[in-house]
Every structure is written in structure tokens, then in C-alpha cells.
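User: Structure please.
Assistant: Input sequence and predicted structure:
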Amino acid sequence: MPTVSTQIEIAVPPEKVRDVFLDFASYSEWSHAFVKSVSPKDRKDPKTLQVGDTVDVELTNMKFSSKITGNTEEEFKWQGSVPLLFTGEHSWRFQSSETTPGQTLVVQQEVFTGLLSFLLGENWSMGKNTKKNFEAFNRDLKARAESLQAPGAQTQDLEARAEAFRRPSGQAED
């Protein structure tokens, strides 16, 4: 099955990244990539969407409805299709970073099936374009999540680094 997969490290804990991701109402403020809007049917809170619920999705060049196939603390996914041609299950995983504690590894992936799904593989033009769009959305999500960090968090980190720099080498903190 053709699959498009991207990932990005975000300097924010997973639950906070997920909160930013699920704040569909604010996408117009920060999502400059291909995802223009996501709107749950029946005006449900995105955090409470369940398997079988529907969202309307607007991308740069198309609109469609998708069925939610998962909504947990670690993953959000939906399935959409162009009947008979291809079906895609699109997912976002919010994992604790294995390399940087307190940060998040976001894995965005779509698995395609159907008659023309091969066109969406990463070696084909449509697949390459899809991957670029995923990467752009990831960058937008990263920028938004990191910009919403607690105002003093980065200042405190910088102050701690400056203090460590001022101490003579080998001298421990008091």
C-alpha cells in the first residue's frame, strides 16, 4: 500500500501539541499549508470526536468529508476517499520524543488503497506533492505550538544557560 509519512520534533509536550492540533477553529490563524480548515459535523468539540463521527475538511484545492477512525491522547486519524479511485487513512501521532525529554515527535502519515492509490506513492508526482504539503503543515504546527509556550519558559531556560556560562568551568551550582 502506498504510504506518505513525515515527522517533526516540536519543543512542547505531546498533550500541548495535541491541544494545538485539535484547535480546529484557530487553523486560519496559523495553518498556511494545504489544510485550510477542519470542521466537526454537529459542532462537536474536536477532543470528544469518536470513531464514526464526521469532519468536513478543506484543503487548498479540494473539500471533502472524512470519518474519524481514531481519537486518543496519542493519535488522531480519519479516513476519506474518492469512491473507487482511492481511499486514504490520514493519521497524526503525538509521541514523547526519545531524543529530547519533554518534547514531541509528531508523525503524520497517510496510507492509500484503491485502484489509483499507486499515484499517491512517494515516488510519484502526486505523492511527492502530498509529502511536501505534510511537511509544510508540520512546520506550521511546530511554529504555532512553540509560540504558545508559557511566556517565561524560554526566558528561564536562557537565564539558566547564562548562569552556567558565567560559572568558572568545573564549579558546581550552589
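The beta strands are 3-10, 35-40, 54-59, 63-71, 75-82, 86-96, 104-113.
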